[in-house]
Every structure is written in structure tokens, then in C-alpha cells.
């Protein structure tokens, strides 16, 4: 994801990486788009990503409406529940999904890695206009 978003051909896009437990409301507000990644834990998003949204959801309402995002999920089972959770949160925020979710089960294959690269590149390209 990050390597696709950081491709030199996407001039003018600065990628800032924040672990979910340390992302602040200011970080969310200063970003023009989002690449979200989470394991599927017991059929849901990680506690860290849920916490990140819980801490900032209301301040982000309206302020981030229409921003592009992409999602990567890694898990063996229950990825549908994790995707539904992110769909509900991002729909409430009014974010715009710009590409299909990348779901990886088990060890990532070459195709999975390419899909993640494309995910990052697609979100970054949306920021270029």
C-alpha cells in the first residue's frame, strides 16, 4: 500500500504513516485521503482501528466528507464483518471509497502484494486531481 502511494510518478503526494493507536484527530483532519489497514479479529476490525475512529469520529463529521480512502484487510476468516464495520464508519463520515477493498487470507501472494500496491497508488492518484 505505502509503496504504491509513494510512487515517484505521483508527484506532490506526501505519505504520512500513523499507527492506529497513535493517530490523532489533527492527523485525520490534516490528511487529504486515507489508506486504512486492519487485521480481521474475530470477524471485526482491530481494536486499534476502532479506537482511532472512536476517538475522532465526531470531530471528523462534515470536516472530512468526500475524502478518498482505500482499505486493506488481512485475515483468515470473518473479513466480511471487518469490511462491514469500515463501510458503516466511512459511510457515516461521508468518505469516498475509490477502489475495491483488498482482502488477503494467509501469507500474501505476489498477486496480493500487487493489489496492495495498486490500492495505495489509486488512493494517491485521487489526490492529484
Describe the structure.
Residues 27-105 form the NADPH-dependent FMN reductase-like domain. The chain is an alpha/beta fold and 129 residues long. The protein has one domain (2-127): Rossmann fold (3-Layer(aba) Sandwich). Helices cover 44% and strands 14% of the residues. The protein contains 5 helices and 4 strands, in the order ααβαβαββα. Strands 1, 2, 3 and 4 form a 4-stranded parallel β-sheet that branches. The mean pLDDT is 92.
Give a quick summary of the entry.
GO terms for molecular function: oxidoreductase activity. InterPro entries: Flavoprotein-like_sf, FMN_Rdtase-like_dom. With 129 residues, the protein is an alpha/beta fold.
What topology emerges from the helices and strands here?
Blueprint: H1 2-5, H2 25-30, E1 34-39, H3 47-60, E2 68-74, H4 79-93, E3 96-97, E4 102-104, H5 110-127
Parallel strand pairs: 1-2, 2-3, 2-4
CATH superfamily: Flavodoxin domain
- Number of helical segments? 5
Shape: globular
> Total number of β-strand segments?
4
User: What is the alpha-carbon Rg in Å?
Assistant: 14 Å
Helix- and strand-based class? alpha/beta
Strand residue percentage: 5-15%
CATH topology: Rossmann fold
Biggest sheet layout: 4 strands, parallel
Mean pLDDT, all residues: 92
How many structural domains in the coordinates?
1
Runs in which pLDDT lies below 50 for 5 or more consecutive residues are: none
For this structure, the quaternary state is: single chain
Order of helices and strands: HHEHEHEEH
CATH class: Alpha Beta
Helix fraction, binned, reads 40-55%
N→C terminal distance: 19 Å
Query: Which CATH architecture would you pick?
Result: 3-Layer(aba) Sandwich
Domain NADPH-dependent FMN reductase-like: 27-105
Organism: Mycolicibacterium chitae (Mycobacterium chitae)
Protein name: Flavodoxin
InterPro entries: Flavoprotein-like_sf, FMN_Rdtase-like_dom
